[in-house]
Amino acid sequence: MQRLRQEVAKFGTVGIIAYIVDVGIFNILRAETISPIASKPITAKIISSIIATLVAYFGNRYWAFRHRDVGGHRQSLSLFFLFNVVGMGIAAVCLGFSHYVLNLTSATADNISANLIGTGLATIFRFWAYRRYIFTDATRPATA
């Protein structure tokens, strides 16, 4: 239980840093005065998510879950990006629903739907997926 608490705390810290990167870049890309893609919120979210994913991978791999077996580095990175694509999809669906279905198109509405609701749901999914499939516990036997 102590190890789980430590992992959650470190995962949370890495997540906060990646979240700041994600939200910061998203808002810069949505700024009408400086961004050529200001009118494309989903494109902005995908770009910001990719950059935040790189930050999260290195933080989780080399700090939060460094004590866990990751197998091949290339395989763990591939799985990490696969699960982050799913997480990005969760955030993009929330943003797309809010922006295009509910017609809530303000920067505030986009931030709430993408960066609060979408990222919140995606974070729960990613923590489960990372622990289950990428950063496995080397002290436990592998599951079939």
Write a concise keyword list for the protein shown above:
single chain; 0% strand; 4 helices; elongated
The major beta sheet can be summarized as: none
User: Order of SSEs, N→C?
Assistant: HHHH
Please count the beta strands (DSSP E, at least 2 residues each).
0
Span between termini: 24 Å
Query: In which range does the helix fraction lie?
Result: over 70%
**Overall structural domain count:** 1
Please indicate the percent range of residues in DSSP E strands (runs of 2 or more). under 5%
Large-scale geometry: elongated
Structural class: mainly alpha
Number of helices: 4
**Average pLDDT figure:** 86
**What is the rounded Rg?**
16 Å
Describe the secondary structure blueprint for this structure.
Elements: H1 2-30, H2 41-64, H3 73-101, H4 107-134
Helix pairs in contact: 1-2, 1-4, 2-3, 3-4
Task: Characterize the structure shown.
The protein has 144 residues and is mainly alpha-helical. It has one domain. It contains 4 helices and no strands. The protein has helices spanning 2-30, 41-64, 73-101, 107-134. It is elongated and about 45 Å long. The chain starts with a helix and ends in a 10-residue tail after the last helix. The mean pLDDT is 86.
